[in-house]
Amino acid sequence: MRAALRVLWIGGASRVMQAAFRTAIVGVMNPSGEGPTTATDSPAAPAPAAPAPATGAHEAAIAPRRDVQAERPRVMATLSRVGVTNVEKVVRVAANGHENLFHAKLNCFVDLAAAQKGVHMSRFEEIVNEAIDEVVLREAFRAEVLAGHIAELVRERQGGARAEVSIEARYPEHKPAPVSGARTQEIYTMFGTAVASGAGTRRLVGVRAQGMTACPCAQELVAERSHARLTERGYSEQQIAEIFDSVPIATHNQRGMATLHVGCPEAYAGDIEAETLLKIAEASMSSEIYELMKRADEVEVVEKAHRRPRFVEDCVREMIAGVIAEYGDSLGTDAFVFARQENLETIHQHNVVAERYGLITEIARELAEDGAESARHVTTREWLEQR
Questions:
Q1: How far apart are CA 309 and CA 191, in angstroms?
Q2: What is the spatial distance between Cα 214 and Cα 286, in angstroms, rounded to a whole number?
Q3: Helices 15-29 and 2-10, interaxial angle, to 10°?
Q4: How far apart are CA 306 and CA 86, in angstroms?
Q5: How far apart are CA 260 and CA 384, in angstroms?
Q6: How far is Cα 215 from Cα 222, in angstroms, rounded to an integer?
Q7: What parts of the chain have a pLDDT lower than 50?
Q8: Which whole-number Å values give the CA distances from 94 to 139, 144, 272, in the listed order?
Q9: Which of 19, 41, 286, 294 has the most CB within a 10 Å radius?
Q10: Helix (H) or strand (E) segment spanning residue 297
Q11: Going by C-beta distance under 8 Å and a sequence separation of 6 or more, which residues neighbour residue 340?
Q12: Element (H, E) at 166
């Protein structure tokens, strides 16, 4: 039997394999283990003892971990906001009856109790992903509705009294050029902010649009100089008036950026269309601008802007007046508006900015009473905090 077994391993086997096979043969032929069967067979080496289980690492892997975030901090103080910023996602946002995938940035915050060391940061990402999945798979939320959904989940799972989520998404709109009708794609920014608390969820919807403004002050200076020159050349006042009526007066221009937010209180169940806010924002400036224009479009835009010169302050006032004309008191007494205009100067190195914020009812009263000033202007933060 030994000879037959040797034949099996001689041909081409490695030394290691041969040694292992020899040991097995010895075990079979000499089970007593008292010595080698032949002079060429070496005694079998004792089998190494099984390693003892590593107690430290193994027990650490299976032992329950401490919930460090739930422990008491050394300094016992509440924190107003804790969270994550610049979370980038691709989401489906419903706007103006269409659904598109937009690149969005999200900020998520929750308040923190004095007795809790920290929040569970990973839960923010989990909640955002869950909400995004629901949007893509089930229904397309508006930006502010999606923000509200995430805020409610954050508040619930982080155990906070208040959670805040803001979304900024860039998205395309198509519109025709003013004269040629050439279809052009314009990129706008949509904002959605929501605060979830025990009182409910407040939502803030906003847009940002670009346009063109023409300076009234410089235009008046050009008009005065042109009037003097025409008078010197013998033109009558009536002729000069006709010339000014037919030929737009030159002035310097700015590219303007209009930002408009409207806040809905907890009890408001309706929707505010981003398209409506965009129209109000663009109409507040001297003229709209377009990415694609033919010559006829270009002269139309320039002439329109110079026939509607507006300061940065005018743009803000036009925006708030547009919001009140569009919505009136339909949003409720606690509805909020924030309008901001920034113009990029061409004859200066600085930019100019104007803002107005406050409750819509207060602003409507100012307009109705021809400039009766409100005692105070409610800020965006105050409105979101429900102060």
A1: 28
A2: 6
A3: 170
A4: 40
A5: 16
A6: 11
A7: 1-21, 23-44, 55-59, 137
A8: 9, 10, 12
A9: 286
A10: helix 295-307
A11: 258, 259, 260, 316, 353, 354, 355
A12: strand 162-176
Domains of the chain: residue spans and CATH: 1-44 (no CATH), 71-215+252-385 (3.10.270.10)
Q: How many Å apart are CA 120 and CA 86, to the nearest integer?
A: 17
- For 182-225, where are the E strands, in sequence order? 183-197, 200-214
Amino acid present at 195: V
Place of tokens 């569009």: 326
Residue 315 φ then ψ, to 5°: -60, -45
* Residue type at position 261: H
Other Cβ atoms within 10 Å of 352 Cβ, number: 17
**Residue 355 is encoded by which pair of tokens?**
């803002």
Q: What is the model's pLDDT at position 282?
A: 97
Q: In the prediction, which pLDDT does 126 show? A: 83
Going from the C-alpha of 317 to that of each of 49, 265, 365, the distances in angstroms are 87, 23, 14
How many CB atoms sit inside 10 A of residue 327's CB? 19
In this prediction, residue 278 carries a pLDDT of 95
Burial of residue 245 (CB within 10 Å: 0-12, 13-18, 19+) is exposed
Q: What is residue 7's predicted lDDT score, i.e. its pLDDT?
A: 37
Which sign, positive or negative, has the C-alpha torsion 55, 57, 62, 68?
Answer: positive
Q: How many residues does the chain have?
A: 387
pLDDT at 96: 61
Q: How far apart are CA 121 and CA 69, in angstroms?
A: 10
Burial class for 268, CB neighbours closer than 10 Å (0-12, 13-18, 19+): middle
Give pLDDT, residue 267.
83
